[in-house]
Amino acid sequence: MSTVILERPEKHIALVTLNRPDAYNAINQAVTQELHHIVEETEADPDIRVVILTGAGPKAFCAGADLKEISSGNGDQLFTESNGFAGFVYAKRRKPWIAAVNGFALAGGFELCLACEMIVAVEQAKFGLPEVKRGLVAGAGGMFRLPLMIPQKIANELIATGNHFDTARALQLGIVNRAATSENLIETAFGLAREIAVNAPLSVAESLELAKSVSSKTEEELWAASTSLFEKILKTEDAMEGSKAFVEKREPVWKGK
After folding, report:
1. Catalytic residue set
2. Do 39 and 131 share a domain, yes or no?
3. Is 11 helix (H, G, I), strand (E, B) or coil?
4. Fewer beta carbons under 10 A from the terminal one: N or C of the chain?
């Protein structure tokens, strides 16, 4: 059976499931290769506008790297050259991914969440970067993505202690977008995905790309980039279709160009 499952249960929305529940969906070589290929496949499919990433079983979203692989000297097999850890964490993606966290999201599992554009989590989920407790570091983006997302001193504490924190704390810190029960987690994630998927895909992709660059640019650079993007989007077919559909009081038909 595949260690990562790709489904298309609704138009424009894909569901990706890490499928190693007996191993808490830990990342091994097979997961890395399959997730890498799924990123490429979903990016290339013009019909997919949003992707939801979750874990199989009730206990874990992902417990991080499979320590059996690391202890046997195969840690380098958990990375791909272009996409990094799990074939995912620094992939050049244009489409938004929503992490639907169904349980523990620890170490590399939390870093998968941080690499996604949005996070929905069950109330009992646990997050954390416990690498320091194992003589390691959060090298799949956690050491810099977390401080970019929350106050520096809070990030320092979470990184240096390796302590877990729950969904309520994650909501308070702005890490998680929406909380859900175990029963309605996937539907909550799909609800958010639908709100995104009805919008112009090119506008969403370009807007998120600019939003992600905010921390690395000056205000002057951001104004220039925003103005340039606005002028670029204004000339697209979707921009004309959106305005025309509004005037004609109908739903727009997006072409992504």
Report:
1. 111, 131
2. yes
3. coil
4. N
